Each structure stands twice: as structure tokens, then as C-alpha cells.
Amino acid sequence: MIAIETNGLTKQYGESVALSDLSVTIPTGTVYGFLGPNGAGKTTTMRILATLLKPTHGTAHIMGASIENRSAVAKHIGYLPETPPLYDELTGREQLEYIAGLREIPIEKATERIDRLATALSLIDDLDDRISSYSKGMKQKAAFIQAQLHDPAVLFLDEPTSGLDPRAARTMRTMIDDLAASGKTVFLSTHILPVVEEHADVVGVLNEGRLVAEGEPMALVQSAESGDKQSLEDVFLSITREPPGGMERAAPEPQHE
Ligand SMILES: Nc1ncnc2c1ncn2[C@@H]1O[C@H](COP(=O)(O)OP(=O)(O)OP(=O)(O)O)[C@@H](O)[C@H]1O
After folding, report:
1. Which residue CA neighbors atom 24 of ligand 1 most closely?
2. Which atom of ligand 1 is nearest to the CA of 14?
3. Complex ipTM, two decimals?
């Protein structure tokens, strides 16, 4: 089944084009690594797909539901934005129970999920402290739990490991792999290329609002392989330096000259 499908998705702010003609098809169970330099349009794309922003042109469907139908899309998705959407005056547990209530998740089920995810992320001992006392990483963990309280089919994660210490970042990456293994789809924006290289099934590279490359990480590296280009970072630097043009698709078989 297709989890995310976009056709000609475009967002303009006046004369300026933040996202141009994005068409992607992402099957369920995929970890899709969404890369691009600052200002490329990654957050714009995620906000459109999370129904928080309307596109200027184009269509998109999440688990078959049009992004024009906000409530139909909302039940399928969880969104972890760059800035965790939390109430400072609540404790972590109050915050998560509040969101569980809004999502109409029975309290026993919510408590089981909150405790399980908070234990996995080593946040369990801090859940009864106020969010105002949380570090950046603790807020990130709470927001990650919040985004998946309702067990959504599709998760949009904007820089999910931002602010996390190495152990917590590793745990979160393992959780992302586990989510995909259980059939969930993870749309992951990050600047940390080794994370994408290791965890993404497919990579899409956005530059100045355009998708300039898409493919499996290894295939992208191999199709671009020439001279000393060997890592996804080299490929990223190479394709995002050039002016936007036609889309480069990774060849299924490596092309050697
Ligand atoms: N509300 C807005 N009004 C005008 N321009 C905007 C607005 N929001 C975003 N933009 C522009 O759209 C473009 C894409 O921004 P976006 O935040 O999607 O980039 P990004 O890839 O997420 O960047 P970063 O990696 O820095 O988070 C940028 O040129 C930005 O200045």
C-alpha cells in the first residue's frame, strides 16, 4: 500500500517558491530520508503533508486520505516538528495524558504506551517533573512520544535526534527501525547524513524547493560514484551545489565508466 503520495506539490510565498512540483510515492514500511540544505523546503513539505499548511498547487494523499481532509489525515499521522509543541507549565505525564485525551485514547492504553515509550527513551523518571525544567533533549523525547501516542501509520520527524545525547539518539534510531519493521512509514528530515545512510530505505534530496535526486542510499552513492565520491555526504554536497535542473534518479545497478 502507498503511505504517502504527492503530485506536483508546490508552495509559493508571493514570488518566492519554497517547494516546486514535488511528486513522490512512498510505500508503507519505508523509512524515507528527506535531505536538503537549509531553506530547501523540507519543513514546508512536512507541514503541508501534516495538513498545517496549504499548498499553492498540487495534491497529496496520506494512507489514501487527501490532505484537504484534515481530520481523515490526522488519525493516520504523527508529527514531530523542529520545535517540540509542549506546554511548559505541565509535567511530562500531564502533557502526554492531555494529548491522549484529545486523541480519545483510553487512559489505560495511554498510560501503558506512555510508560513503555518513556522507559525506552529513559524519560520515565522525569515524567512527573514540569516541562519547564526539561533539557532540550528531554523535550525532544517527550514530543517524540507525543507524536506516536495514537500509534499512527505515518510519522513525520523533523530532525528527531536534535538535542539528544548519543545514547538517546541511538535509542531513537532503533525505535525508527522498529517502527518501519512493524509496517509504519517514517518520513525523516535530518542533516545527519550517516543516520540517513544507515536507516533510510529511500533518500530524497531537495534543493531550492526541487527534488534533485531520489533512490536507495547505496544506489545514489554508486550512481554518482566517480573519482573520490564515496559517501552520501559527497553525493549530497555535489548535487546540492549545482543549480536545480532535472531530477537524478539512482540507477538500480551501479554505472561504472
Ligand atoms: N512563512 C513564510 N513566508 C515566506 N517564506 C517562507 C515562509 N516559510 C518558509 N519560507 C521560505 O521557504 C523556503 C523553505 O523553507 P523551509 O523552512 O521549508 O526549509 P528547510 O528545508 O526546512 O530548512 P532548514 O533545514 O533550515 O530547516 C525558505 O526559503 C524559507 O525562507
Report:
1. 38
2. 4
3. 0.97
Length of the chain counted residue by residue: 257
Task: Please give the Cα distance from 239 to 237 (Å, whole number).
Answer: 6
Nearest CA to ligand 1 atom 26: 38
What's the whole-model pTM score?
0.89
The whole-angstrom separation of Cα 134 and Cα 245 is: 44
Each residue's pLDDT expressed in tens, for the chain with a length of 257 residues: 999 999 999 999 999 999 999 999 999 999 999 998 889 999 999 999 999 999 999 999 999 999 999 999 999 999 999 888 899 999 999 999 999 999 999 999 999 999 999 999 999 999 999 999 999 999 999 999 999 999 999 999 999 888 888 888 888 899 999 999 999 999 999 887 888 888 899 999 999 999 999 999 888 777 655 555 567 777 778 777 755 455 555 544 444 43
**Which protein residues are within 6 Å of ligand 1, measured from CB?**
13, 16, 18, 36, 38-44
Q: Whose CA is closest to atom 28 on ligand 1?
A: 39
Measure 47 CA to ligand 1 centroid, in angstroms.
11
**Among all chains, which residue has been given the C-alpha cell 527513551?**
121
Q: Is 32 left (phi over 0), alpha (psi -120 to 50) or beta?
A: beta
